Amino acid sequence: MTETTKAHLALIISGLLFGANYWIAKGLMPDHLQPMQIIFIRGLVSLILFWLVAFAKDNQPIAGKDHLLLALGGLTGIAVNQTFFFIGLSLTSPVDTALIHSASPIVVLLFSAWLAGEKTGRSKISGIGLGALGAVLLVFQGNFNSTGGNHLLGNTLIFLNIISYSLYLVIIKPLMAKYSAVTLMKWVFLYGFLFVLPFCLPSASKINFNSFTTYTWLSMFYIVMGTTFITYLLTSFSLKTVSAGIAGYYIYMQPVIAALIGIVIFGESLTIIKLTAATMVFTGVFLVNRNPSFKKGA
After folding, report:
1. 46 found inside a domain
2. Most CB atoms closer than 10 Å: which of 211, 227, 230, 286?
3. Position 298 in a domain
4. pTM
5. What is the domain count for the chain?
6. Is residue 81 part of a domain?
7. Is residue 296 part of a domain?
8. What is the pLDDT of residues 164-173, one digit of tens each?
């Protein structure tokens, strides 16, 4: 097996783990854990794991001026991002969440053009417009209902979640050339956890670990290890061989996997409007990322 094949296999496994995560995280709320309780456990355990790895393999010092960017990265990439994701997911469906997430590359490009001065041609502008329209259409497929659910609010929070995470990617990008991934992650998770901690403490103080079922423990293990620690390692491994553009395309596995799980296991249906909106998003993303240079890393 070649290194390129191993890299693509790592990205496929990562996409599968993320795709299933929408349903696993949704299954925990609210009967087993509240959103802020999941964020607390995930943040704390992930923080410990990344610092242990950094302590064992990486003692790279950080320049004082770069701590501001790391703090902003922790705020946008961990605190705001995770809060909106888990609260939003608790209110809407995993399929809606995954479909809205597919618009993330378009939002990243918008922030890159605005903050980093990245050039945009006609193809990218057309893709942004089409993808944005599809994402908005997906958001407004949510609805209010009498049972207390609020899918519109949930979809809106998920959309804000990808905006926050996309901003994080643009903020943290300049630091990637200066520091190792492990060094960046340990500080981003530290700042992010400190930002979100005051909001988590009221719920975290009520966590009763004695009441955890086998399902609860396995689900939290999957969320912490599967979709945080392992996927990070797999993505880092793949980027040694393939380009970031190639790696980015694997995000589109997530809505497909989430939709298949929903249809096959949970009996969820996809409406014509959702399929149309998703097609608009995917077409927009294709136009945005249409770059022959990506093929060089395949």
Report:
1. yes
2. 227
3. no
4. 0.81
5. 1
6. yes
7. no
8. 988 888 888 7
